[in-house]
Amino acid sequence: MREQIEWQQQPFSHNQACLDLIAAKPHGILRILDDQCGFPQATDHTFLQKCHYHHGNNPLYARPKMPLPEFTVKHYAGKVTYQVHKFLDKNFDMVRQDVLDLFSHSKNRMVSSIFLKHSESVSQQRSNMRRSSAARRYQANTVSAKFQSSLQELLEKMERCNPYFVRCMKPNHRKEPGVFDMELISTQLHYSGIMETIHIRKEGYPIRMHFRSFLSRYKALLCLRDLPPADGENCVTMLHKLGPVKNGSYQLGVSKIFLKEELYQLLEGKRDRLLNIAAMTLQRYTRLCFARKKFTKLRQCVTLFKARCRGYLCRKKFALRRKYLIRFRSAVLLIVNRQRYMRTVVEPARKAEEDRINREVVNVTTLPIPAELAALLQAASGGEELHSDCLAVVQAPKVQVDPQLTLPLDINNYLMTHYIRAIFREPLFGMLTAPLESSLTRMDEELKQGALNVFILILRFMGDPNLNGAQENLFGNYIIQRGLANPSLRDEILAQVANQVWRNPNILNSERGWLLLSSCLSAFLPSQRQAKYLLKFVSDYGPEGYDCVCQHRLLQALQQMNVGPEYVRTYPPCLLEWTANRKKAHTVLHIHCFDGVSFLCPLHSWTTGEEMAKDILQHRGVVEGRRGWSVLLKEPAQWVELEGSDYVLDLMSDLELSADFPKHNSYFIISAQEPTRVRANASISLLGGGFNMNDDVISSAITGFDGPDLEPQKGMDRYLDSLFDPVLSDGAGEVESAAGLYSRMKGAGGVGGGWQQQGQSAGPPPPPGAVRVLPVGGVMSPPIAAVAPVTLDERQAVLAQQQQAIVNQQAIIMAQQMTMQAMAMVGSPVTSPPTSPITSPPMSPLLHHPPSPYTPASPYAVIPPSPYANIPPSPYANFTPTTYAAANIPPQAQPPAEPQTQPPAPHNNPNPQPSATKTNKPEPPQLKANAAAQVQSGKDSVPRRKAPGIPINKDTRVKKFAPVVTSPPPPAEEVVKYSARSSDAIVPSQDIQEIIKRYNSPPPPPDPLPPGKRRPEGKFKKMQTPRDEALQILKPQMDNPPAPQPKRPDAPSPSASAMKEAGFKPTRNTKTRGPDRRLLIPPPVSRELPVETETIQTQLHQSTNEEHYTYTNVPWRLYLRKEVFYPKDSFNNPLVLDLIFKQIVNDTLSEACVRITRDERQKMKALFAKHGVEQNMDPVKEHVKKTIVTAARETWEIYFSRLFPASGSVGTGVQVLSVSHSGMKLLKTVKSNAAAPDYFRVLRPYTYADILFVTIPSENMLEFNLTNEKLILFSAKAPQVKHLIDTFISEIKKDSDYVIAERNFVTDDRSMLSFHKGDIIRLQVMDGLEKGHSYGCVVRKKVVFLEDLKRDTQDFGWKFGAVFGRSGAFPGECVHPIAPPDFLSLPLDRKAEPRGGAGQFAVSSAVAVAVASTMAAHEIDQTIEVCLDGFSDGDLDERMLQDSKYDMLEFAKKYFRQGTNGRGDSLKSKSKNRDSREPTEMIKFSKTPLTESLIEFTDPAMNRVAADLFLSVMRFMGDSPSRGSTEQEVISTFLKLIGEFTLMRDEAYCQLLKQLTANTSSKPDSCQRGWRLLYILTAFHRCSEVLKPFLLKYLQQASRSAGAQYQGIAKACEQNLKKTFQYGGRIVPPNSMELKAMMAGRSSKRQLFLFPGGIERHVKIKTCSVALEVIEELCYEMSLHRLEAMEEYAIFLVTNRGQNVRPLNKHEYILDVATEAELVDTNYSFWFRRVIWTQPLKFENELCVAMHYNQILPDYRKGLLNVLPHGKVSEQQFHQISKLAALQHRAKDIIFIPSIHELSEYIATPLFKKQPPQQWVTMVTQHMQQVQTLNPHQARAQFLGLVSAFPMFGSSFFYIQSSSSTTFYAPCIVAVSQHGLHFLHKNTHELMAVVPLVEIQSSRTQRPNAGTSYPYVDLTLGDTNTQRVIQLQLEQGLELCRVIAMQVENMMSVREKRLTLPPSEITML
């Protein structure tokens, strides 16, 4: 119809009549069937009759011809006859309801789901039936009803959709394939309506297409690209163009075209043919493309094949030509290279050899050196050294540093001759060619031997021709290490070197001396006594180049002394310094910044990390913020941080020194990323703890060590152990340990004096830090002895026998060793490959270093390698030392030991010495080659670690050595003469005679001692032991060792071939070296002092060499890093901010920085994610950088701090001291693992306000004088710690007006200020003080509540405020300046200013002070407080009040107005007023109003206020008409005036006392009403301290006067006044009810207070009752009498049915709170709760137990008290929870078993779901049997006892809606307790974050924003310098603030009690 086309209705048959017959309402067959089913008497027959009745006339319904139970229905397909037998029964679909319930509750989910739907439908029908009609009968659910409902649903779905039908035809009834029954198919087509559908489709227009769709579909048939307009005409045109069209085959509608099926099929056929042609065309072109590609590829392959063939032929031809050309060039190059080699290698080597030979002044190769040094020299014999191939000369750096070196003005007065005459033992100065017999300078006897030994080393260093470059550096470092280890030897070493270079005729020898002197000055300083003399000496007499080097080093070192404490280097100079000193050049290092910029920065030996950082930042334009920086060494496996006060080149020295070098412990901070790649010589360690006075002791906590084994051995015990260690060990034929090598000497000489000083220490005490911690998985391996394993049973079996045998043999073996060492005369001279010491610094890493990333092959050959790389090794090779790396033993893990004994000298005796055991065994050849050694003095020896004792095996053989003379004895004139004493005076025993015989000739093997026998004379006889006798005989020889032999230049030096043939064997060298190396004896050098004059003017030298040396191609980098913030440091500079920001990002994401804990790193990563910060992201907004830097500075504990090694007393665990801008912290290093990857644990923090001053009582000892204690720490860097802390404190103290008391000052003089140690005093300006005195007042810290300060605002909260005490003078020597304390940031708010304005207010305060109204002045300025003479701040003494000077008359004489008349007085009353001006009249009753104030004020406005006050007094007393005002209005006006004008408080009191004195009013109750008014006034406002004694005396007289009428109310006024002074006075004016009660004489009311659980208690509340008094009374009722217990309770005001809960301040007045609450809610209530839970619970009082039980129970039932880790509950916890449930049930006085419902209340819901309910019932039942005997009180008490052990017991819980913190997420639960704020997960209650109470500075509430209902609470966290704010949103904001305040107050009170110890008490940590 819409398309307006011509159409005809096509007839077709339908089944609607039949459908109505079957299902139509109300008489369809199915409807009748349902109705019959509803009747109980209905049958199938009645159903059939009703069908016949209603449908008998229907043509589609046929009744049976016979009376049969059936009927027939004519369907569309034909007739169907139905029999009604059991129709009704089949129609029913009912199942019993109990059966349905049974199946619906089945445990099988499938069964229950099937029947659940059925039960729901039944219940829905029943509910519908109840709602519709109560009379309607319930209809059962039948089959027909279901059929009709499902049919209806199907029809509705079909109407909503476009249905498509698929007709399935059955081909035959037999279900056989290939059989097609035409009749059956026809019938199905007819019955299903298919035929009619086909007919309708044929006659109509089944294809209906929109114009646009038609044109778009068929435009391709006409080759149209664009779509024509969509209209009917274009459609018809297109149809006719496509072919002939029959009439009637289409019609045009409004928007569609209607097509016949025939036309549509024609069009689709044409379209399909067109699409087929298009597809074929596309395929044709595609195949063409593929064919072309294949052809192109084939052509390319052919071309490539041809090119390869041609190339192969050309290369073959070229190779043949190159072969012949190479042969020709090789011959040419051979000749050229040979000539070059002779010119560049052989000739310089020959010249270098001549120079080395000429260096020897005398033969010093026979001088002894320590075996330890020999082992190190052997390792360096190849001339290789770490970084030797990494040195390069670079251009001058762009970073310019101004050296600012100046000579002292009096330098010319310090001649070296003056120093020699004053300090030297003898006035001799000049080169020596023989060892010293005594030290040059005067020193202690115990240090002399060390000085002599050092001089021998200097002689060897300067004259030994066998040292190559690496050995020379190592030898020099060893000498310098002696000076570093022993400060007493430094001046002696410098003097000895200066002596050797003076008048030295050998230029090369002298040059080595100046090199050593410059290197010494690069490592340690001379004393101040020697410094200037040495400075002038090196400046005036140094050779060219070395005068500048030595002068600059000394001046640079002296500059460090001026900057801070006297520092020394940790390590000897590095390779870069040695090279620069040789070349007289400069040094630079490549420094990188975290922003990617790098610089070459110049430096010298005394440049610290902070100084280098300053130079770089200054070069980059930074003006401020250059302090607190340092450098970081980044290696492939680890980062090494340098303290800003340490020297940069110490990092390089530590890298290069061998692991066996006797260096000090370092205190670098290591962050190891890959512990397996840490370099082998990494002696640097994370700061360790422990401070021992003698040795470095390994902590016994290391696996594999026991405590007693690590005790350092003292005196002779240590000597004996070190003596027998190399003898008793079985490693003589194997590789020996470094500890064994250390106990031997190289060369000739006697025994040292180490054994003679048994009781003296072995050197300076080592620094603390013996505990070595390697972070990030670093593991320390204990040293393992290389012996066969011995079982415990075997050891116990043979231990007794072995010990006895060893004891018997020790004496003989020791005597033999001592004799051999004493009698050895000369060692074997040896040679080593010569190398130029000037041109050949070390080349490559050490020989024994393991492969590491620190030894790369450098492409930069700046310095040519040694030409003697193939020459045989050094003669030190006959010592076979073993590096620790080879034995897999770290050198740090060795206990300390000192060298005491040496093995014998080498010999040529072919007969080996027999051993001392049963089996004689020849010595290995290696032992024969060992040279005799000399023991160095214990004082100058460097502390070393000794391997633990090796378990003695029964197979271990004790080796015995005999001395053999290896060279002919020297001539008599060349040997040092012995002492006059000889062995003639001593008669040796038989054993000693045997020892002496052994010296002359080797003895036969002695009889071995059986292990089980003892020598009869060895234990009990008092005679001298053989050892003592041997020492007594050989002592003269040991005291006078032989002198070195001068060289004889008879024979030329051996050639390389001769050295190769010699093989460097000691026996051959011993015979050949003597006659071959004969030099002329040098002419004697005059040692007489030169005649020096002051004509030499010392000048500042300039460097002659402008070369700059540095490291290149090294595997490490130096980075600039921010180490510590100075107190007033900032990062406003963009460059500084960017560097710090990128450093934080790098350290946070690297996972290796040990300064950052895991929690800190996670929080920072969360902050990164919040701001989108990633690694290497650039640019970043400046505010983001500031946020991240500020967060790191404020929240990271030790990141921005300088860490120092420290230790305390035993058991404290202090290992590290952290100093930062916020204070100092005591740290402990902890072992890291995957679960706890933190490395430092903060033991205790201190702020700078706690530190008075720091002193160093003794070396390495720090004494911190704190406010209330003393802290003693030990640190190797004590001067640096003191200097840094003093610097920080001095900066903090700048412009500070506060001091802190160092000691108590208590005096009776009231003009002086008394204080105690630790009190903070604010200085005030005061003129006329005595010299040395100051003036000020004591400031104390107090929690100040904002609601007390700002009563007119809605602010609520608290923060720390200052309370100022009285002022006075005090001696300045008792105090120390400090920074302003943090709590001063809160100024106590002032009250509202008077109406006169600020200027008028100031005038009033001045007047108040002038008239001594201190109360008024105190209200204006809280800092002003004047105390009366004779009175303290407490209560006044009643006996003192008896004095007449406190009468009101005396007050009137002093402070009342005098003489003048008022302006308003009339002439008539002038005479009367003149009389009333008398003080006696001014204090008496007056019937006329006042026109001026009684107290004289210069401000005229005060007179008006005083007049209004007096008028209010008269109106209230009835002496003046009220003029319509009520009593309450008069009282409000009176109190309001006093509140607004606080200066008028004294005036109001004086007016009231005036009207009460001699009252002559006509009103009978005037005086009584006046006392009522005074009662009210004393409850609201206090008077000044000046008026206080006068007022108290007046009230006391009135209360004690006999017969006085107002005794009771006067006493009440006195009590009110005292409480007002104590609590501040009431604020809210009394309401009408209270005022009526007062006027009636009633001063109290009964107030209800609710306990937890609804327990009620009534308390009598008086006018001035405060919350504290109520708490005390309720606590007394609970039997709590201690003040500490009462402080833990609080009262809460509850309004609006519990929605608003406000905690009360303990000083709040109850009636004030009640008056304000009545205006808000008349049904208010007071709750009594416990807030703090520090005091123990008491179970005696039933009320106390019930109160606590009812308060704890709700939190327990919510599951808040117990935190379950990961939600897991153990079996023990199940039983504990069950017992608590049983106790709750018994507390109700119930003895029956609880039900499941009751248990669900007793047990928290998360816990109740952990197991089935029946299981809970079973467990609780078991515990119910145990608690049956308890009464309810006992059950509650036992419940509290069990719950008190829960972690969150005693906490107050609040639900947080939202939070601004990133450390936890909201909503959550916060638990407030004495341990801080614990933020818990809202569901699992797991701990997310903790905030300690000490970090909370304040809290404050904020009104909610628009649209929100909960207030906000701002918590300020942190300390004085760094603070952050966390905002929380919760419903109970006020309650949270007050609970936190109570917890903080409790913490402060506990701290104050702890700090009230005697000032002399010292806290040792």
Structural description of this entry:
The chain has 1965 residues and is an alpha+beta fold. 40% of the residues lie in helices and 12% in strands. It has 60 helices and 43 strands. The strands form nine sheets. Strands 30-26-27-28-29-40-41-42-36-37-38-39 form a twelve-stranded antiparallel sheet. A hairpin with a 2-residue loop joins strand 20 and strand 21. The longest helix is centred in the first third of the chain and has 99 residues, at 261-359. The protein is flat. The protein starts with 15 loop residues before the first helix and ends with a strand. Residues 134-138, 682-798, 819-992, 995-1023, 1041-1080, 1387-1435, 1460-1475 and 1956-1965 have low confidence and may be disordered.
